């Protein structure tokens, strides 16, 4: 699995010409290439060539030509729908920039938008130029041209290099979401022709990546071998940022009580019951339940303080009228936690969903929470305006079905 720091897309493929996209959308809307040419202030042959270039790029016919004009093909309908959504993201950037001029997509280029997103993501011109595959000079030129269009500086120079302004970060997020819609269009158009392309990036928190998500991906890829799935791990905050930027399609893991961003939604999958986990052969494994007074008699593996599970860890002892144990190892890595548990008498507050394979192999065992049924909600998080491709919907369906089958009626535990 890749860390969240590696969420940036491969930008080396030449971006779609924004002007060509506008020509196509105008032709699809008006039904006339001549009218599209008029709106764009170009000749009709130039408009026809722009549409031809897009058809070559997508590998599909986008418009049906007839005596009465043109009409979108099935592929054209897909592209037109995605472009409407893509341009709404640029319109949102317009509102952030408080521009009073013509729409942003009328005056910017794809190269300028790619330069902005690359520099914001990479944090330097050197790394951004490698990601985009152009020289630093070209990158500087594109950025300066973009700053002239928007009428404001987008980066500040510091002793550590360049730093994006708040406006630049918000602008880059919408520019990345614009690019994401175009990527989705390409995948959907390929699917119309029987091709299996596209990509789904999933941000997986510890519980999901231990069993549920890898199993669902394995099932999914049996029938979608050409679809690329990337599973990213990292702190929740980093994954959430990638989700909001359009670098991640959805997250799966413990749900939060208050989402930090209004444009995100959560969908519950199941209730995850917490247990006391230990190695097979542990002295407490012989007991059906762990007596509360023995909770502090053994060393512990504890979740890091920023993790949602930490509050449950604190409550475990407070509920029994005990002070937290002093002999603890804070660990955010489930792999490391497994080794600590199997190689010692340490205990850990964990979910059975995270040790499915270890329990089946007889390496770890679990006992009920002393306070009874203590659970947390596990679910999916995605952007409210996200429209998944058919393949992405199928993958999410596989996750939902496996969650229900494995953890039974939305519940996981004893």
TrEMBL record:
Pfam families given for it? HTH_1, LysR_substrate
What are the record's GO terms for cellular component? cytosol
The record's section on InterPro entries has:
HTH-type_LysR_regulators, LysR_HTH_N, LysR_subst-bd, WH-like_DNA-bd_sf, WH_DNA-bd_sf
**What GO molecular function annotation could you give as one example from this UniProt entry?**
DNA binding
Q: Does the keyword DNA-binding apply?
A: yes
Q: Which residues form the HTH lysR-type domain?
A: 16-73, 108-165
Q: Which residues form a coiled coil?
A: none
What keywords sit in the KW lines? Answer: DNA-binding, Transcription, Transcription regulation
Identify the domain of life. Bacteria
Q: Describe the family membership recorded for this protein in Swiss-Prot or TrEMBL.
A: Belongs to the LysR transcriptional regulatory family.
The name on file for this protein is LysR family transcriptional regulator
Which organism's genome codes for this protein? Marinicauda pacifica
